């Protein structure tokens, strides 16, 4: 991580400072390359029949892996060829974890050749047969005309193929929602998930609040989860038709789980916990058009960068501002994103074509940052955000998923409940392995460093029953009559074969992002590592006596209250007031339960 990210945390990042890293990325028209960034075709001597310079448009060359497939045409394939095409579609769907994009009329090297109307119709018919063979659905995303070297109109067609994997109920994507207080985070989620526009006074957000004081103040102080579904045709499935959460899950082939986080600086620890423990695939940073980058916006942006969470930006409340005010806010965002600490390429989304391109670019390049401008009251450009979310593919590939599933079971405990007639219930994310109903696991560490045996009675995902949980998925597990008093946030439930180790002392390689004076031995900070959140004291700074903002070092920490389960390589974030730093765990000093009990008096 570039130490210049500290500018975002320290609040000393000037909107106009730093060299620009590329211009604002926008989708090109039919004659251009909407896949920006690929190699350009060589210019040929001579001219086309229309008398124009013959400069063929290109996409990036087709990659062997990934979920994007180029096909020049699919007209009347032989049976052998058809079976080969079906196998190829299965591979692309596996790579995209249930989603694939077909570009019809494009050569493997990325040349946009295009097809005549009759050939395109026949190719789409073949593609439909292929999808039926594998049990998938297809949706035409967009069509573009290509006028290169031909008098006849020729088109390329982009098609989304979606199939829910056999071992899953639906495709799942987790999106953390960040932004300053009063920027409209909960209101936007209410509009998306309830299907009704806001009245301008916050009516849409009322169903999202969990506590009375949140309703009274209009400010989120806790972490809440909301779901938005899309069926196989890309149509929105939400609560608008009086559906229950179970019905939404049953009707959807893709599910977006929004993690609504707090915007007020007072609840920053809750926001950090949501980002570190719930493992979001990406983040939505909401910025109010009338206030611009204000309050905790810059700090939330810095958190996303520090934790390497891909993010896109939504500029809200455009109905309250003049067009010039909205443009000024967008320019301000573009300047910050291009600064050396960010190295992002902003992409302003103004049309449905832009939204499709943005979703693909966002998944392929970590530097591309789409920017939407919309209103939750008038509904302006709200459909563009829905198109983007519908097309956005999973950001982890299938190989990583398979590797995680082959490891032993490890479930992070993030929430603890008591449900009448069910008993103790824990919520969290399965970090690795597979968890099934009836599995025997151990949970810990307790305050005295022990791990306790328990049994998983039942599993629910998005409020609907689920028999099997796979790595990367979030769920709630019912533990029956297990004593809730023995549980706390930050514990892990693991397979007994793992023989988990615990530690009170660990070392981490850190970058001090911001500190008003000098960072020394004896300084106490709140450490966030995954779902672990506890106060720790700095015992030693290797090779140095003190640290200043932007400096790196290996630091030894000691937990003050109880031992924790940590893994080498885990991302770490610490804070205390305005002091903030990031890094990763480099070493843990494993201890036994007896040693943990002896250390409790530290």
UniProtKB/TrEMBL annotation:
Chain intervals with Basic residues compositional bias: 40-50
Domain of life: Eukaryota
Originating species: Propithecus coquereli (Coquerel's sifaka)
Domain (Tr-type G): residue spans on this chain: 170-398
Cited InterPro entries: EF-Tu_GTPase, GTPBP1-like, P-loop_NTPase, T_Tr_GTP-bd_dom, Transl_B-barrel_sf, Transl_elong_EF1A/Init_IF2_C
CDD domains linked: GTPBP1_like, GTPBP_II, GTPBP_III
One GO biological process term: nuclear-transcribed mRNA catabolic process, no-go decay
Gene field: GTPBP2
Name listed for the protein in its UniProt record: GTP-binding protein 2
GO molecular function per UniProt: alpha-aminoacyl-tRNA binding; GTP binding; GTPase activity; identical protein binding; translation elongation factor activity
Annotated Pfam families: GTP_EFTU
Compositional bias of kind Gly residues: 29-39
Assigned keywords, A-Z: GTP-binding, Nucleotide-binding
Region of interest called Disordered, as start-end residue ranges on this chain: 20-64
Family to which this protein belongs: Belongs to the TRAFAC class translation factor GTPase superfamily. Classic translation factor GTPase family. EF-Tu/EF-1A subfamily.
């Amino acid at each position: 991580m570039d130490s210049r990210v500290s500018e975002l945390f320290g609040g000393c990042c000037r909107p106009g400072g730093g060299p620009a890293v590329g211009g604002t990325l926008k989708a090109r028209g039919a004659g251009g390359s909407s896949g920006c960034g690929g190699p350009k075709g060589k210019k040929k001597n001579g001219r086309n029949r229309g008398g124009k310079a013959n400069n063929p448009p290109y996409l990036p060359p087709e990659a062997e892996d990934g979920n994007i497939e180029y096909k020049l045409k699919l007209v009347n394939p032989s049976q052998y060829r058809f079976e080969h095409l079906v196998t190829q579609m299965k591979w692309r769907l596996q790579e995209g974890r249930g989603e694939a994009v077909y570009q019809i009329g494009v050569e493997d090297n990325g040349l946009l050749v295009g097809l005549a109307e009759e050939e395109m119709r026949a190719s789409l018919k073949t593609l439909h047969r292929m999808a039926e063979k594998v049990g998938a659905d297809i949706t035409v995303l967009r069509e573009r005309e290509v006028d290169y070297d031909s008098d006849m109109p020729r088109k390329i067609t982009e098609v989304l193929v979606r199939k829910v994997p056999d071992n899953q109920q639906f495709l799942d994507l987790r999106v953390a929602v960040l932004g300053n207080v009063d920027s409209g985070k909960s209101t936007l989620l209410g509009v998306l998930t309830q299907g009704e526009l806001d009245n301008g006074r916050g009516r849409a957000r009322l169903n999202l609040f969990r506590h009375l004081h949140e309703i009274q103040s209009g400010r989120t102080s806790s972490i809440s989860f909301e779901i938005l579904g899309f069926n196989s045709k890309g149509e929105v499935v939400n609560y608008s038709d009086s559906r229950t959460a179970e019905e939404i899950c049953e009707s959807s082939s893709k599910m977006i789980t929004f993690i609504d986080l707090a915007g007020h600086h007072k609840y920053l620890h809750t926001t950090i916990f949501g980002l570190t423990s719930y493992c979001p695939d990406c983040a939505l940073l909401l910025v109010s058009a009338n206030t611009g980058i204000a309050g905790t916006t810059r700090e939330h942006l810095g958190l996303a960068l520090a934790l390497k969470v891909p993010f896109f930006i939504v500029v809200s409340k455009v109905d309250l501002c003049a067009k010039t005010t909205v443009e000024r806010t967008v320019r301000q965002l573009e300047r910050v994103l291009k600064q050396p600490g960010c190295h992002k390429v902003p992409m302003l989304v103004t049309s449905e074509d832009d939204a499709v391109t943005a979703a693909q670019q966002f998944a392929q390049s970590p530097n591309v940052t789409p920017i939407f401008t919309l209103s939750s009251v008038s509904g302006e450009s709200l459909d563009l955000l829905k198109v983007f979310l519908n097309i956005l593919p999973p950001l982890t590939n299938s190989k990583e998923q398979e590797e995680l599933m082959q490891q032993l079971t490890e479930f992070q405990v993030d929430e603890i409940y008591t449900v009448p007639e069910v008993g103790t219930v824990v919520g969290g994310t399965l970090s690795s392995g597979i968890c099934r109903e009836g599995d025997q696991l151990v949970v810990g560490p307790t305050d005295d460093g022990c791990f306790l045996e328990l049994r998983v009675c039942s599993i629910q995902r998005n409020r609907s029953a689920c028999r099997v949980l796979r790595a990367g998925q979030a769920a709630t597990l019912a533990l029956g009559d297990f004593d809730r008093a023995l549980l706390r946030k930050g514990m892990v439930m693991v397979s007994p074969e793992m023989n988990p180790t615990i530690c009170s002392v660990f070392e981490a390689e850190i970058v001090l992002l911001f500190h008003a004076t000098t960072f020394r031995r004896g300084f106490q900070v709140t450490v966030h590592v995954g779902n672990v959140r506890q106060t720790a004291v700095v015992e030693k700074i290797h090779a140095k006596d003190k640290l200043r903002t932007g400096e790196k070092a290996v630091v030894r920490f000691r937990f003050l209250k109880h031992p924790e389960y940590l893994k080498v390589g885990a991302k770490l974030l610490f804070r205390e007031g305005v002091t903030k730093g990031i890094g990763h765990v480099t070493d843990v000093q494993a201890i036994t339960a007896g040693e943990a009990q002896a250390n409790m008096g530290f």
